[in-house]
Amino acid sequence: MTRSRAVLAAGALAGALALTGCSGSGSASGPDRAELSVSSPYMPQPVSADMAAGFLTITDKGGTGDELTAVSSDVAGQVTMHSTQGGTMTEKSSFTVPAHGRLVFESGGNHLMFEKLRRAPKQGQTVTVKLTFARSGRLTVEMPVESATYHPSTGH
């Protein structure tokens, strides 16, 4: 009987720890926190040996906005964030993800630049991308590599 109780206690503790790992790092629950998700990530197969672009949509269903402050990937020496307006591209240090809103990275607009490629991503592969947010911490995204001429049905 003692062994059974020990096994049950260990199982309960493991479950509690797993649930703790799923919650944000001390984030408030409910409408006072960001609830981030990523959709439609992709990278067109690079036409350059040392640079690639990346696109995705970040949605916040929570009542508090957040800020994308950094992006990294093992495929690149660095990943920079850019906005394009009126044909002019500007590097940005962060982007706001509004509460109950979206941040879209799309061809011709905001985008990610994978610079100093360590390997050339090929169509059919995936690239691991880590997005770092001011409040929500880090999200890891698997970004599929598509053809260089890919145009998603999502419009970005």
| Class computed from helices, strands and strand pairing | mainly beta
| Low-pLDDT ranges | 1-29
Topology, number of strands: 10
Please write the string of helix (H) and strand (E) elements. Answer: HEEEEEEEEEE
Mean pLDDT: 83
Radius of gyration: 19 Å
The largest β sheet comes out as: 10 strands, mixed
| Bulk shape | globular
Helix content: 10-25%
N-to-C terminal Cα separation, in Å?
A: 60 Å
Report the portion of residues in β strands: over 45%
Count of DSSP H/I helices = 1
How is the secondary structure organized here?
Layout: H1 2-22, E1 36-44, E2 51-60, E3 66-73, E4 76-85, E5 88-92, E6 95-97, E7 101-105, E8 111-117, E9 126-133, E10 137-146
How would you describe this structure to a colleague?
The protein has 156 residues and is mainly beta. 13% of the residues lie in helices and 48% in strands. The model is unreliable at 1-29 (pLDDT under 50). 21% of the residues are buried. The chain has one helix at 2-22, and strands at 36-44, 51-60, 66-73, 76-85, 88-92, 95-97, 101-105, 111-117, 126-133, 137-146. Strands 1, 2, 3, 4, 5, 6, 7, 8, 9 and 10 form a 10-stranded mixed β-sheet that branches. Strand 9 and strand 10 (137-146) form a beta hairpin. It contains 1 helix and 10 strands.
